[in-house]
Design goal:
three-stranded antiparallel β-sheet, about 220 residues, about 5% strand, Arc Repressor Mutant, subunit A, 2 domains, about 75% helix, 3 strands, mainly alpha, elongated, Four Helix Bundle (Hemerythrin (Met), subunit A)
Length: about 220
Amino acid sequence: MTITAFDFLRSNSLPMLLEQEIERVILGGEFKPGDHINEKELALRFGISRGPVREALRSLDSSGLVEQVPNRGVFVRTLTAQQACDVYDVRAVLFGLVGKLLAERITDEGIARLKAFVADMDVAVAADDFEAYVKINFAFHEFIVESTENPTLAQQYLTLVKQLRLYRARSLMLGDSMHASHLEHHAMVDAIAARDAARALAAHTRHVEAAKERLMATTTDLK
């Protein structure tokens, strides 16, 4: 028997699943920054009442993906360039810690997985295949963070990444940003594979700081 999306939602926690689905469409580009999110339309889309939709949107507001504007409704959050830079500053500190912890805890299997990610990105970069590169890049970073086995750190870091995804995708497309970013990936994995915690901390911190610099170089209102 085929389980429809409606059946799946009905048999699980509605607000949590709705939050995941709305997040997916936002990060996938169906809803753009600044777009209005209509509770009624979402309720009709999923065949449910507006209550669970409202609860899911409140949770997304807390995570920084949407914002509730009094007397106007809920909108996909639009980060200013300065706000994005502020998020990058916090993310750099967290990602440095991620690198340090992973260098201390990584298994041989984990190192093999990291090298496989880098090899796949090598192919995408050589082909100038931005779409393929971005997908592997996101999976690579998620694997790194989750492999620290520190759920609190992973949750905080990935929340920041979600807020920056539209900014990151835009900046990676410009100039040689994709190529520069991937050279940093090599440095990160080399440090982790060597199990050099200090070098891994520095490489991971630098990776985010460089991403911020690439953003600033292409954003006129930061100059």
